[in-house]
Amino acid sequence: MRWQGRRQxxxxxxxxxxxxxxxVGGGIGILGFIxxxxxxxxxxxxxxxxxxxxxPAQVGVEQPDQELTPEQEARKEFxxxxxxxxxxxxxxxxxxxxxxxxxxxxxVLFHGAVQSGCxxxxxxxxxxxxxxxxSVYLDTGFFDELADxxxxxxxxxxxxxxxxEVGHHVQNLLGLTDQVHAQKARLSEGDYNALSVRLExxxxxxxxxxAHHAQKRFNILEPGDIEEALTAAQAIxxxxxxxxxxxxxxxxxxxxxTSAQRMKWFRKGLETGDAAGMNxxxxxxxxxx
Length: 289
Ligand SMILES: [Zn+2]
What we know:
Layout (H helix, E strand, L loop, with lengths): L11 E3 L14 H11 L4 H10 L16 H29 L7 E5 L2 E4 L2 E4 L5 E3 L4 E5 L1 H8 L6 H19 L2 H6 L7 H30 L6 H11 L2 H9 L12 H14 L17
Parallel strand pairs: 1-2, 2-6
Antiparallel strand pairs: 3-4, 5-6
The chain binds zinc ion.
Zinc ion (ZN) binds next to helix 5 and helix 7.
């Protein structure tokens, strides 16, 4: 992907050096200290030992004084350029296609763990979008995982991941996320999952729509880029993930769609660039997804 030297979004919040402030346990306070001193018969060594075990633990965070490596800096710049590209494209096409103004989301970069508007999250959950604070959360270490664990290296694979999360933001602005969640109570788990799959495939479609327009405007694609995105879409399909995790596939618990479905809808968005085409995802019968 051609991204160097291009505009970077101002909406990146880089928290990779900030401690996540996750308190597990906590201090015992002066009263607790005195009480412990009494209970241990005045053995200060035992008290300090106990206190050491009670220190607030921070979950997987960088040391605050640790400088970011040039590679980590480059990842921020890259993510900021991709985010800027999504801003340009969606600000233009969302009002024209759906009659809704685009509000730019925030992209929070974190390392290990983060406090989001949707609660505390660890990197293991992967990149996610929180509708409450309209922010995309991304541990840039996920890009390594994409390359090493999922066999999907390359910068455009990473751009696809960001564009997919921004797709969830577009759904949120259009009220689609709320519509799906509102049905949770009255649907069986299987039916609700089927609906969630549509939401996920739609985000893939929207990532494709973005790529189509970003290419037109900024000529971002280099040879192999589309293959990188398709590899990522395939690698993180639910059937692949579940096979890796448990050795078999349970279609009822799919929430992202199969690898083939994810590739299909990304490609469709990419080829048509038609934002309004996203409605198909909630109109087609299951066997045509
Ligand atoms: Zn998603």
